[in-house]
Amino acid sequence: MIGSVTESVWQATRNMAEAVAAPFQDPVIRLGVTGLSRAGKTVFITSLVANLMDRGRMPQLRAAAEERVLAAWLQPQPDDAVARFAYEDHLAALTAPEPRWPEGTRRTSELRLSLRLAPTGLLGGLSGPRVLHLDIVDYPGEWLLDLGLLDRDFAGWSERALAKARQRPGAEAFLKRLDGIDPGQDFDEITLRGLAEAYARHLQTAREAGYSDCTPGRFLLPGDLEGSPVLTFAPLPAVADPPRRSLWRESERRFEAYKRLVVKPFFREHFARIDRQVVLVDVLGALANGPRAFEDLREAMADILGAFNPGRNAWLARLLGQKRVERILFAATKADHLHHTQHARLAALTEALLREARDRAEFAGAETEAMAIASLRTTVEDRVSSGGEMVDVVRGRAAGSGRQVALHPGDLPEDPGHLLAPARAGAEDWPLQDYALEEFAPAPLTLRPGEGPPHIRLDKAAEFLIGDRL
């Protein structure tokens, strides 16, 4: 309790300092970009920045269409202890003669894009152009999952984690090892380390099979914490009044240490300072992996969104340390894998999938939006004959072979409930059809002066996220 009070006072003090300094500085928007693995965070940030710097493909960003963005340039990010987002390297990978996908996020990084804006309003002619800084913060998807642990104790997390493991692939070795252990026995480091390693291997297998809720996230990306006690524990069956020096008690202690030393600092330093938020969701990937993976994604996103503390930012709330996210965009990525006639259905499915999280955000006062986007368009649309009928497809380069392929992943239903209901009921397969997903490689680009990379609705996403401040 003392630690929580100290954290609240520290956060309130920092917010008060920021509020006092704000009138004497250029305004700043902190945009958080989050999402689980393979949702496309790195490509989203790279394409967004490139298209804000060269705005020829941004007609739905009103400030760009009205030529009120006079200039955009990159500056050093303000947080000296945070790695810079490697924008130039990622853009070079996407625009090379033989383009490739950039490396995924493995640590927190940040980038500051400064925008010089034409004056507006009655006094605009007197004040001259103004500057707005957009600080974009990127988080590893694996670490994002841990925010849901903050409201759980070790017993509750263990019960939930073990229930999930019994329904997922790759858990056999961990569960077999666990069956031979009494959680109430005396603590032994070798035993607990073996359990932790087996559980980490299971999480890795589950993630590769398309499951989203794989906590603790640092078990998948340990970094310099590898081998430390905060990453050497595992879920255990409940024990009635476990002894003080038992395996169960030590696992519980390390679980709480993980939350205190890893999750809370991450939340405090980054998430608690966000103004606007993008939540990228690979809905099509979850569909292709089946109903259980789809339901697992829904549960994971509901957990994550509970940590955002959304709502409108009043100046008094800032002073009291209650900074809240004002706008949240739920974006289904890889819309270029579908013909445009199905984009509305993908957006509706995303909205229904995240209904619980979105309702919570709107109730707290945040504006929310759901849309289908492609940060980098990799396909073109076509129609082909199949079984005597014309079928809408997309064509692109297959990621593995580089050969041109045509894809029709399956028709999404008009009513998202036709997918949500069987997923919640625990169905093993979709009742009407399966959904295919082809991994496309980025296509070679020829960009004219003033144009950023091709995309689908990235300008609409930017208008929702920052248009009001431009």
UniProtKB/TrEMBL annotation:
Cited Pfam families: DUF463 (PF04317)
InterPro entries named among the record's database cross-references: YcjX-like
UniProt protein name: YcjX family protein
Organism: Rubellimicrobium roseum
